[in-house]
Amino acid sequence: MPDRLRDAIAREFAGDPPRWTGQSSSRAAFLRSLPIWLFAIPWTAFSLFWEVVALGGLLGFGGTRNGAGTWIAGLFVLFGLPFVAVGIGMMGAPFWMARRTRRSAWVVTARRVASVMLTGQGVTVRTILARNLLAIERTENADGSGSLKLLFGEGRDSDGDKVERSETIEGVPDIRRVEQLIRAVMAAPPD
Q1: Is there a single domain that holds both residue 96 and residue 108?
Q2: Which domain holds residue 123?
Q3: 162-170: long-range contacts at Cβ-Cβ below 8 A with a sequence spacing of 24 or more?
C-alpha cells in the first residue's frame, strides 16, 4: 500500500480505528478489463487504417486533387480521429484499472465501511454507515478470494426505473473473513 494512502487512512479514521484495511488485487482488476483491450486491438487497427487512407486522400495520393475531393477527405480524417482516441483509451483501460486499484483501499471500522482513493493531489472517501447496510452478497473463488456486494438502498435512474444502490469490494483475499467482520459491524448496536 502506498505511504500516501496509508497516511490518508490514518488521518481519516483517527477517531474510528480500522478493524480491517485491504486492497483489491490490481492483477484481478487488470484481468477483468483485458477483454476491453482485446476488443481495442482490431478497433484501433481499423481506425488507424481509416486515418491513413483518409490522409492519403487529403494529400492527393489517390489521384488528382480537386476542391470537393480534398474537402471530403478532410472530413473523413476528422471523422476518424474520435475512433482512434477511443481505441487508444480502450487499449489503456487495463493499465488504468490496475493503477486505480493500487491507489485505493477498503476500510472497515466499528461504524462504517469506506473506500479511500488517492486522486491527483487529494483523497476521495466514500462511506457507507453500518446501520445503512441492508444486505451482503459474497462471491467466493476456489482460493478463498472473492468479492462482496454491499447493498445499502434503492434509488431511481433517469428513466424512473428502480435501481439498487450498492458498492462492490472486489479481488480481496480471504473474502469470507471480511464478510464476517462486516456482518458483525452490522449486528452491533448503534452508538
Answers
A1: no
A2: 3-23+104-187
A3: 167/113, 167/115, 167/126, 167/128, 169/24, 169/106, 170/24, 170/25, 170/28, 170/29, 170/32
Question: What pLDDT, in 10s, does the model give residues 59-102?
Answer: 766 655 666 666 777 788 888 899 999 999 999 888 888 888 88
CB atoms under 10 Å from CB of 184, counted, come to 13
Number of domains composing the chain? 2
- 173, 158: one domain: yes
Q: Are 109 and 18 in contact (CB under 8 A)?
A: yes
Instruction: Say yes or no: 43 and 88 in one domain.
Output: yes
Look up residue 23 and give its three cell numbers.
Answer: 486492497
Q: Round to whole Å and give the CA distance between 109 and 39.
A: 40
| CA distances to 20, 110, 127, 155 from 185, in Å | 11, 6, 14, 24
Phi, psi of 157 (to 5 degrees): -85, -175
Same domain, 77 and 171: no
User: CA triplet 34, 38, 42: central angle to 5 degrees?
Assistant: 160
Give the pLDDT confidence of 163-177 residue by residue, as tens digits.
Answer: 777 778 887 888 888
What is the Cα–Cα distance from 150 to 115, expressed in whole angstroms?
12
* CA pair distance 105, 121, nearest whole angstrom: 17
